[in-house]
Amino acid sequence: MTVYVDLVFFNNLAVDGAVLLTTAKVRHLRPARSRLLLAAILGGIYAAAMFWAHIPYLYSFGVKIAISLLMVLLTFGYGGPLQLIRNFGAFYVVNFATLGGVIGISFLLQSADSPWGGMTFTQDGGLLLSWQMQLGLYVTALLLSFWLFRSTSETRKKRQDLEQLFWNIEIKVDAEKWTIKALLDTGNRLYEPLTRIPVMIMEAEVWREQLPPGWCDRLKRESPDLLISEMDNQLSEEYPWGSRLRLVPYRAVNGNSRLMLAVKPDVVMLSREGHPPLQVHRVLIGLDGGTLSSEGNYRAIVHPDMAQADPAKSAPSQPA
User: Fold this and answer.
1) Which end of the chain has fewer CB atoms at under 10 Å, N or C?
2) Main-chain dihedrals φ then ψ at residue 310, nearest 5 degrees
3) What does the alpha-carbon distance between residue 6 and residue 128 come to, in Å, rounded to a whole number?
4) CA distance 1 to 120
């Protein structure tokens, strides 16, 4: 069998460079190109060295770890023991995921008469796996493995970032309370214009039993000022939440000014894992006639001012 050492070197140079670059993307780092290239050259030289000199201990487990560690240090620097461990772990995770994907794709496309067709046992008990793949298919499989790993990592990171915005909220009105999942929206800057009370948004469906009959469905298609006018004529003395209702003007996405029906609660409690509970008195709850999350992950949108409340210095209840 003829082995071209230069091809081995350049092949490993490209693979090691891609692995290091993907590791940098996963770790959100930007190493210098010269450092990355130097580390990739080291990996290529190490892979090609087996064809230059027969040194058995050069490919022992300890030396492999040392070379990998040196490549990580050359690319990302030291940055402290914790940073080094994270970079080193990410480097090997990318290696296993991407190169394992290449081998998996090659064996998937390989055809043999039996499962043992691609295996050969040596005289000293070793096992050789036959791996034949055209260069174009190899490059395609390698790039596909990198892309799948990076896409999966970014999706997981986005999901983790989104989960950090979820809050459990408990709303108390008179003697009743409701507990729902909410999403913190830093872009929500809706305030009641006169008092500057922040307005959080909640699905009206949560309070279907508490709202006057038919209001929950009518909010989907009618302006809430019509509902308030009807209540003033018919239910002003019968409805217990009459004094809590507000009309809050806001600007829709299309630029038109609209009104939102809002309710003044007694208190809203916010809680999240790893954070102390927050108690907010000065807030209005705007009612949305639709569904805020198509997947049902949350039923309310928290105003960013609420997440900044100090639990030890929560303001007492103030009339809106």
Assistant:
1) N
2) -95, 115
3) 23
4) 16
User: Are the beta carbons of 266 and 280 closer than 8 angstroms?
Assistant: no
Q: Tens of pLDDT along 12-50?
A: 777 787 788 888 877 878 888 889 889 888 988 888 887
Closest CA to 3 of 57, 49, 59: 49
pLDDT tens column, 132-179: 544 554 555 556 555 655 565 555 555 554 455 788 999 999 989 999
User: Of the listed 124, 161, 185, 225, which one is catalytic?
Assistant: 185
pTM score? 0.51
Q: What is the DSSP string of 258-309?
A: EEEEEE--SEEEEEETTEEEEEE-S-EEEEESS-S-TT-S-SEEE-HHHHT-
Instruction: Please name the residues in contact with 77: beta carbons below 8 A apart, sequence gap of 6 or more.
Output: 31, 35
- For residue 139, what are the CA distances in angstroms to 9, 133, 179, 187, 274? 16, 10, 53, 43, 45
Looking at the DSSP bridge assignments, the partners of residue 280 are: 268
Residue with the two structure tokens 């060295």: 49
Of residues 195, 250, 206, 204, the one with CA closest to residue 227: 204
For the stretch 121-134, what's the b/e string if a residue is b when 16 or more beta carbons lie within 10 angstroms of its beta carbon? eeeeeeeeeeeebe
Q: In the chain, what are the domain boundaries?
A: 5-161, 166-313
- DSSP assignments along 24-37, one per residue: HHHTT----HHHHH
The DSSP element (H or E) to which 200 belongs, if any, is: strand 199-203
Residue 124 known to be catalytic: no
**Cα 293 to Cα 299: distance, rounded to the nearest angstrom:** 7
DSSP assignments along 86-107, one per residue? HHHHHHHHHHHHHHHHHHHHHH
Buried b (16+ CB within 10 A) or exposed e, 70-83: ebbbbbbeeeeeee
